[in-house]
Specification:
The structure is a homodimer. By secondary structure, the first copy, chain A, is mostly helical. Chain A has eight helices and no strands. The first copy, chain A, is 70% helix and 0% strand. In chain A, helix 1 crosses helix 2 and helix 1 packs across helix 3.
Chain lengths: 201, 201
């Protein structure tokens, strides 16, 4: 195998891209360092220079999903009114889920690698959750952590469920009026706003 | 292969159980009529007596999940007060999701079989959704279909998201206060109640 001074960094990056491809094509169960090496046409040992185990590579793939998700949420239209900003955040969340189904599944429908610690993954996942926490702190005008986390869990649940259901087969077979699917997203946003208001009344 | 008069019915049933096992052990991608035949120790052709394609068998496996889900929801504690009944329904939903993760995934996280019509599957899935619709018709004191369907989509989204997130790895790495996970479920129920009340105020 030809080597250059640059090659190790390129291989490290190439492993992430190849892992992403393996998962996209054959599912997460098919991911192994051996399979990544095969795809890249390098020796079976080569990926081990950069990733101690398959789980370390998977953690890096997942971390990048959270990183790109955070960037996408940060690019939303921002509003001074925190309720408006929450709605905008929800829309950006649903847009990412719909336009990046594989990345979305990797973040939230995939068991995290267990066999090693992955602080960078935890850091970038927490960063995404903190975007929601920060908007909620403005909605509440306070920073009481448990209150914010409970509301964050409610809103995250609703967004995650909606994103999943909009992609599922089931909802298209439930004999709903034709107007309903197109109205679901704004309705859910309005219900979240109503739920949040009910806490202050 | 020895045959008895009873055998065909038994084989039909055995195929469903074997398909369930294949999915549990190796994932839905591994399901094929050939694999089911292998598991049962019958000829490759035998399952075709009862299921025209692999998708027909999968549809029957999924249908039974909806059937058993409906039975579980119907066994919830019933309340005359429709808001209480809605809360009870939500709890029964989350209990089923947590105690039957495979069945739950098959219903809501699996693409439905496409290559054939499966009216029994649609009927039993719609029956589950109608349980929620019926409670909501009592909450609203009306039967305006689009309103009920929109609220049903909001509540289903929230329940589905919560069920999924409670089983996900992510929520255990977000630096939440220890008290939060145990309080999430009642908090979400309370937020749904608040959202529903806000529509009438």
């Amino acid at each position: 195998m030809p080597k250059t001074a640059k090659e190790p960094v390129e291989l490290k990056e190439a492993c992430v891209l190849a892992a992403h491809e393996v998962i996209a094509e054959r599912g997460i169960e098919a991911l192994s360092l051996r399979e990544v090496a095969r795809k890249l046409g390098v020796s079976h040992q080569a990926p081990y220079r950069h990733y101690a185990t398959r789980d370390h590579l998977l953690a890096e793939v997942m971390r990048r999903c959270f990183e790109s998700f955070a960037q996408s949420l940060d690019k939303r239209e921002h509003f001074d009114d925190p309720s408006e900003d929450l709605r905008s955040l929800g829309q950006a969340y649903l847009h990412f889920a719909a336009s990046h189904p594989l990345e979305y599944r990797l973040m939230f429908n995939t068991p995290w690698p267990e066999k090693a610690d992955h602080p960078a993954l935890v850091r970038d996942a927490t960063h995404v959750f903190n975007i929601l926490r920060n908007v909620l702190a403005r909605v509440h005008g306070s920073s009481k952590k448990a209150t914010i986390d409970l509301d964050a869990m409610f809103i995250w649940s609703t967004m995650h469920g909606l994103a999943s259901i909009m992609q599922s087969s089931a909802m298209h077979h439930l004999d709903m009026q034709k107007s309903v699917p197109g109205r679901v997203m704004p309705h859910v946003m309005e219900m979240i706003r109503g739920a949040m208001s009910s806490r202050h009344s």
